[in-house]
Amino acid sequence: MRIAIIGLPQSGKTTLFDALTGRQDDPGAYAAPGSAQVGVAHVLDPRVAAIAEIVKPKKTTYAAIEFVDLAGLFATERPDPDSAGALRDADGLVKVLRAFENPGVPPHKGAVDALRDLQEIDSDLFILDLDILERRIERLRLSVKKPTPRQEGEKVELALLERCHAHLQAHGSLSRLAVTEEEEKALKCFCFLTQKPSAIVVNIGEKQIGDAAPVACLGQRHEPTLAVAAALEKELLALEPAERAPFLQDLGLAELSAQKVLAAVLSALDQITFFTAGEKELRAWLIPRGATAVEAAGCVHTDLARGFIRAEVISAADFLQFGGWKDCRSHGKERLEGKDYVVQDGDVINIRFSV
Questions:
Q1: What's the rounded Cα separation, in Å, for the pair 76 and 180?
Q2: Alpha carbon 18 to chain centroid distance?
Q3: Which of 49, 86, 91, 328 is most exposed by smallest CB count within 10 Å?
C-alpha cells in the first residue's frame, strides 16, 4: 500500500514524512520540484506481540505502509498535470495542513489558515481531475462519430465520463460518485485524485497540543482528521525510548502520534488486518474490508490462491484466550472456511492448498 503525503509549501509535510518513517536527513535535501522520497512505516498492532508470545516464531513481521513525499507539486499557482503521475499511483492521500506559528518559516500566502489551505489543496486536485476528464471526453466525442469496432464501447465510456464530469463540477470531488462494479473497473485506469481515500493531518505547534481548535476550525469532514506536532514528534523519535518517556509525560502524551496517523490512513482506506502464525514466521497483513479468504491467500502468495482448498480460521481474541492453534482446536474455536468466506479483522488464518 502506497500513501502520498501532500501539502502546500511550508506546511511541514516533509517533517511529517520524517516523523512517520524515521528519516532524519535535512528536509530540504530533496526539495527539487518533481523529486520524491519513499519511506516505510510499520503498523505496531499490539495483537502481533501478544500472538508472538504464544507462537514463539523465528521471525515477526508487522504490516507496513509505504509513504511517498512529493516535492513541488503544489508550489505553483496551478498544479502541473505531468508532475501528478506519482500522486495518481498512490492508493490514498494524507493532506497536511499548517496550524503552527513559526516566524522563521513564513506561512503560505502570509498567514496561517488551515481551512483555506485545505480548500486550495482540494481545488488543485479538482483541477487535475477535471483536466484529465475534459481531455478524454474531447477525444471520445470526436472518435464516436467514426464507425469503428470500438464505437459502441467508446459511447458507453463517454456517457460514464460525462456523468463523472457533471458530478465533479457539482460536488468538487468524485469521492461519493455512485458507480456500478463494472463502471468502477472502467474508471480505475484514470486514477482520479478526488476519488482517492484521504486522511487529514493538522500540523500544530508544541503549545497547541491538546487544543481542539486547529481541527475544529475545519468543520465537519468525512475524512479521518487529527492534529500532530510533526516537528516535535520528529525530534522525540530520534531519542531512545527511555529518554523519550519523560518528555512525553510532560506533554501529556501516552505515545508518539505516528500510530494514530497510520490508524487514520487504514480507516480512510477501510483496511483490516489478518495474521498468519507459524513457527517460522508470524506476520500481519493488510487487506480491504470485504476481501475473501482466497483473496487473503493471494495476498500471502499467488500459489496459495491458485491451489486454495480451505482456510483454517481462529479469531485473534480466541487465539489469545485459549493459547494457540492446538488449544483453540480442542475447544472448538477453529473454523474451516471456503474461498468465499469474508475475512474479519483479527482473523488468524492458515491456508490449506495444493498446486
A1: 36
A2: 16
A3: 49
What is this structure's pTM?
0.91
- Looking at the DSSP bridge assignments, the partners of residue 353 are 308
What domains sit in the chain, N to C, each tagged with a CATH number?
A: 2-44+61-104+196-268 (3.40.50.300), 124-195 (1.10.150.300), 290-353 (3.10.20.30)
Lowest mean pLDDT among 7-11, 21-25, 197-201, 311-315: 21-25
- How confident is the model over 187-233, as pLDDT tens digits? 999 999 999 999 999 999 999 999 999 999 999 989 999 999 999 99
Distances (CA, A) of 334 to 10, 305, 317, 344: 52, 20, 12, 14
Neighbours of 266 (CB within 10 A): 23
| C-alpha cell read off for 109 | 500566502
For 162-298, where are the E strands, in sequence order?
198-203, 225-228, 271-277, 281-288
Could you tell me the CA-to-CA distances from 281 to 88, 147, 222, 276, 304 in Å, in that order? 34, 58, 38, 8, 16
